[in-house]
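Let us work through a complete example step by step.
Step 1: write down the sequence.
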Amino acid sequence: MSFLLRTSSRLRPLTRFPTIRPITTTTKLSANAATAQVVDQTGTEPPLFPDEPFGPTVRTAIPGPKSKKAIEDLDKVFDTRSLNMMANYQNSFGNYIADLDGNVLLDVYAQIASIPVGYSNPALLASATSPEMASAMINRPALGNFPQHDWADILRTGVLKVAPKGLDQVFTAMAGSDANEVAYKAAFMWKRRQERGGPDVEFNEAEMSSAMSNQAPGSPHMSILSFRSGFHGRLFGSLSTTRSKPIHKLDIPAFDWPQASFPHLKYPVADHELENAKEEARCLAETEDLIKNFHNPVAAVVVEPIQSEGGDNHASPAFFKGLRELTRRHNVLLIVDEVQTGVGATGKFWAHEHWNSADPPDMVTFSKKAQTAGYYYGNMDLRPNKPYRQFNTWMGDPAKTILFRAIINEIERLNLVENTAHTGEYLYSGLERLAQQYPGQIQNLRGQRQGTFIAWDSPRRDDFLKRAKGMGVNVGGSGEKAVRLRPMLIFQKHHADIFLEATEKLISS
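Step 2: predict the structure and record it as tokens.
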């Protein structure tokens, strides 16, 4: 197959790293994956990882014999039933993931949207091997009690440097589910503070004693409203707001919390403007009714800018602006879950920037590409009125926060958010062409002007994902029938060409 290109050199262990060079204004990407290399003064854009493979290499079935043996060994001590492929990260570079059998795949799934600037990135290696990182790792502090002396500087030069507009505070956490859980806690404490009459009103004896028995008033009957098909994590509180698949929730006790309908848009959206506007209005009306009338009063609404695990479901900026307006009107908080959409994937650093809303969310949660986690906020009333209320031993991880700072520096140095926006336009136009040629195989194409955060529905989705590996591409799905693309921020047009050629071969066969 023409697009299964050999690497320019043999796969090598992690003893040297590719050099990353910035995009210049005088260069652009080649339209041909096979010639995606630096060409002096020809107008060809150099790869961001010049030493990464020129394209995929498929030598064996996946998994191959070495991988099968490793999987069998792992299964003796670790559950492998959800395993996608056995990777060799020492031989993975840039946009390409390698296995133990010499197969090298173009990775447009990127660890479920979690690798931002490429495998074996030398800038991240430099950060990871710095004395600052070593100290943070071996002397890991309990941040609430014993923060390191430069913690404020680490936050200001990293996490807070890219804080969403209007949000200048951060609470760090361990993972996306954890970030949402602590955001929910902040919302409940904020709401009860209002109901008591302010931060200086002390807890009464009835509240303190009933809390120890999980009873009201100390454990109040309040709720977080989420949306059908949404995903916000797998811990107990976050799982009660997750509505994507039954397998995520079965057998787990859950809170009695409401769910509203998320807009189910028709595509292409330009041909269904009136119908989609009515659908979004219906969902907003349903949300408002739940806020006003649900038997467990709503303290906050949590929403993803794009429902990622639940099928890559989109809504218009008008819908989200309407949601912000009604949460303000009814004095409930708006939590925007940017765990998967954040850090540049949609062609904006934060996906909610596409809304162009003058009124920011109350909290924005993050993780995945950030490699650390937490939530941003701006209102100081979201800090608990007493210490130890929003607390755990670690309260995040300075080592991961230092890594996020290095990621931010790479994103800025290489202008990767803009790169993702431009590459996304190119990729979407190619998929749009294929959708016109094969309308039965690429349905409801969505994600236009959303960077590389692109998806479509396929009647043969599971077969497509399985066969894609044989074509040299690692890609993922979401919901029941969506193919979702989650490439890294260093994904370029020549990578898009490889993916488009593989996709056409798959859907036409």
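Step 3: interpret the result. The chain has a mean pLDDT of 91.
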